[in-house]
Amino acid sequence: MKRFRWIPAMVVVAMLAGCVPSFRENKEVVGPNQESEAEVETTIIPNMQLDDNYYKTLIPYKESAARGLVVSNIYTKYDIKEAEEGLMRISQNEFGTDSYYFQEGQYLDSETVGNWLARKSAKKPEGLNPPADEGMDPVKRAKEAPIYLAHIIEQNYLKKTRDDKVALGGISIGLALNSIYYYQKEQYGEWYDEPIPQEQLEKKGKEMAEEIVRRLRARAELQDIPIVIALFKQEARNSIVPGTYFAYSVAKPGKTELGQWIAIDEKYVSFPMSNPEDIYRDTNTKFLNFKQDILKYFSNYTNVIGKGFYQNGQLVKLSIEVPIQFYGTTEIIGFTQYLTGTLMKRFPDSIDIEVSITSINGPEALILKDRDDKEPFVHIYEY
């Protein structure tokens, strides 16, 4: 069954008049001259777009058909966030934010995703992970048949048609892959870990991607839709930085095969480092100097943690968390002013910077600076 969403012609008029448009779904059926029935829903496209890097989302907002699985399938909150945001970033290479609208995945429901994530067996013939007998030695299973695929993320991209409708214009699929396989030798026993080599992980990920495209193409409503598939490598369970996508490919409309795989060079690292590689040494030195500047201001300061995001070997964003132990609005204002000046002095203009100052009471101040901006944005909470 095809799905379309109507864009009401009166939406803009209603907004200008100060009226609140109804979010009630109005369903209609296209006339009998159509080859199949189509479900039609009234929808609203927001006028405001925060940034060219963000997609507009339609109202009413539709939650994922597999909502909730990501929390149980992906190890850390950092990986959950990056698996979704990174896929959206990759999708912009195929589906521009100026002509496509974002919607959470509607075609892979929880049951389907669960079946695909299972080990292949007589009971789970659709399982994409390798089969393993129940009596198989745990160590042998970890080395020869680990769980490669941890989760499947689906994102839909809708496009406006000539007759004031929006219809599916593209699908993006993210495959969250395990870099480490965790296992127990006996029930309730100690946990062990078996790293999965990158070459092996990439090979299996690409094989699974090809199979997923074939399965999606078997659905009539997805036969002529471009499909983006990207491979995401999870970090360890105790990691404080997220993993990243390392490759993606596109199946053109009507094609059951993926095109050429495109490598992605992205990496998150934490600062400060005790023994940094050459590529991170300069930023690590700047970060250590920044930390010393804080100690000069308040001697009872304890810790600062930074997270750097690199693309193609270049630092593009630095996020810093500064927990504070002192109290009082005047102290927070003074410290924030000092910190803002220190940031401008220590770090280059070519990167995005975000500094979050927190205390036991919660967020205290926020400093944001986009690359090449002359002045940062500073906000002190509850002031």
TrEMBL record:
Pfam families: CamS. Keywords: Signal. Residues 1-24 form the signal peptide. This is CamS family sex pheromone protein. It comes from Ureibacillus terrenus.
